[in-house]
Design goal:
By secondary structure, the chain is an alpha/beta fold. The chain has two domains: 22-51 and 295-391, Alpha-Beta Complex (Aspartate Aminotransferase, domain 1), CATH 3.90.1150.10; 59-292, Type I PLP-dependent aspartate aminotransferase-like (Major domain) (Aspartate Aminotransferase, domain 2, 3-Layer(aba) Sandwich). The chain contains 15 helices and 13 strands. It has helices spanning 2-18, 59-72, 80-84, 87-100, 111-116, 137-144, 158-167, 191-200, 223-226, 256-265, 267-270, 277-292, 295-313, 333-345, 375-391; strands at 35-37, 43-46, 104-108, 128-132, 149-153, 174-179, 204-208, 235-239, 250-254, 325-331, 348-349, 351-353, 363-368. The strands form three sheets. The chain has a seven-stranded mixed β-sheet, sandwiched between helices. The chain has a three-stranded mixed β-sheet with strand order 1-2-11. The longest helix is centred in the C-terminal third of the chain and has 19 residues, at 295-313. The structure holds pyridoxal-5'-phosphate. Pyridoxal-5'-phosphate binds at residues 110-112, 115, 136, 138, 179, 183, 208, 210-211, 239, 241, 250.
Length: 397
């Protein structure tokens, strides 16, 4: 039996490889950071991590995690509702709710699970989910698991959203769903306008703050802070795996009754293990740090402004961004790969993205800025881009 299946898989794999879509994993032998060591021992500057606040290797979080190991053990060997709820899980949920100005929070193993488990328990075939076309894969999968009617609107297109809202008026409840920051362009969802339309057409709103939490808004409280909508949005999902330390863990935070029902019915919560105590302990410490100082957010915003401006001055075509994501547009797929390869030789680790991850002929290198980058490292990156950009005729200056 396996012989036939094996040759089928080999054909699939060859197809992926021939299309140039085979994903190879580069091995890193150091902690995550602005500077990382790759397997051949070479040190490179990392510009493609979601380590926006530079917390992935933060000493204070490592200490909190170690303490958590000592006081609460390595694992809990249980889902939350049987015997997997420790005091620190509840504390972390409270910290998240305070951070976002919401009623309550429910933790998941990852935001993929939070999104996978949020729709099906809340809505059914009488209802409507109206989803941005560029929403994250986990939202798309979560929507698929739910019986609600599905509507889609073009990315951040408020006319289209209004059309979908009108079309869905016959449904019982309507939920508009959007990423806070779209990961390929770095644009922020126009939550103020979404909220206005939601009010006008009697809909609720859900925002996935995975790329925006810790980053967007003066104090990094995400798009609800950016648009003065703290406490106004029914559902927020997010991850502990990006700006918030980068380990693992996801959450849904929002209205009290929504969270309460999710604890009763959300399948990835009911049928999957609690997050490790050390992650909960470090998470609590991380949110304390967010309350103590705004230093990291300030540095991130400064770094991003500096980088984007310098790259534009150098002649690069940069997508308008309101996040720490900076898309350097190259349009041609092969060019994006060749330039990324050349940049790595120059000690700059970035990734090129092309169709089908981004639209056809919209290939780009996505640079992700971190509070951990110092000015010298940013300059090194800009200098390398300028040198390689000239080599490939992308810029002429
Ligand atoms: C990264 C990301 C996720 C997945 O988060 P994990 O915690 O890694 O599962 C979900 N939604 C969005 C918008 C993301 O960017």
């Amino acid at each position: 039996m396996y012989q036939d299946f094996k040759s089928h898989l080999q054909t699939e794999l060859t197809t992926i490889e021939q299309a140039g879509l085979y994903k190879k994993e580069r091995i890193i032998i150091s902690p995550q950071g602005a500077k990382i060591r790759v397997q051949d021992g070479k040190e490179v500057l990392n510009f493609c991590a979601n380590n926006y606040l530079g917390l992935s290797n933060n000493p204070s979080l490592i200490e909190a995690a170690k303490k958590g190991l000592d006081t609460h053990g390595y694992g809990v060997s249980s889902v939350r509702f049987i015997c997997g709820t420790q005091d620190i899980h509840k504390q972390l949920e409270d910290s998240i709710a305070r951070f976002f100005g919401t009623d309550d929070t429910i933790l998941y193993a990852a935001c993929f699970d939070a999104n996978g488990g949020v729709f099906e328990p809340l809505l059914n075939e009488e209802d409507a989910i109206i989803s941005d076309s560029l929403n994250h894969a986990s939202i798309i999968d979560g929507v698929r698991l739910c019986k609600a009617q599905r509507y889609r609107y073009a990315n951040a297109d408020m006319d289209d959203l209004e059309t979908q809202l009108k079309t869905s008026q016959a449904q019982r409840f309507r939920l508009i769903v959007t990423d806070g920051v779209f990961s390929m362009d770095g644009n922020v969802a126009p939550l103020d306008k979404i909220y206005e339309l939601a009010k006008k057409y009697n809909a609720m709103v859900m925002v996935d703050e995975s790329h925006s939490a810790g980053v967007v808004g003066t104090t990094g409280r995400g798009v609800t802070e950016r648009f003065n909508l703290r406490g106004q949005i029914e559902i927020i999902t997010g991850t502990l795996g990006k700006a918030f330390g980068g380990a693992i863990g996801g959450f849904t935070t929002g209205k009290k009754e929504i969270i309460e029902l999710l604890r009763q019915r959300s399948r990835p919560y009911l049928f999957s293990n609690s997050i490790p105590p050390m992650v909960a302990a470090a998470g609590i410490r991380m949110f304390e740090m967010m309350d103590e100082t705004n230093e990291l957010q300030d540095r991130l915003h400064e770094n991003t402004l500096y980088f984007v401006k310098s790259m534009k001055d150098a002649g690069f075509d940069i997508k308008p961004t309101e996040s720490a994501i900076c898309a350097v547009m190259l349009y041609d797929a092969k060019l994006s790969q060749d330039i990324a390869t050349r940049l790595l030789e120059e000690g700059i680790y970035v990734t090129g993205f092309y169709y089908p991850v981004v639209p056809k002929d919209q290939a780009r290198i996505r640079v992700q800025i971190s509070a951990a980058h110092d000015r010298e490292q940013l300059d090194k990156c800009i200098t390398a881009f300028t040198k390689v950009g000239k080599e490939f005729g992308v810029i002429t200056k």
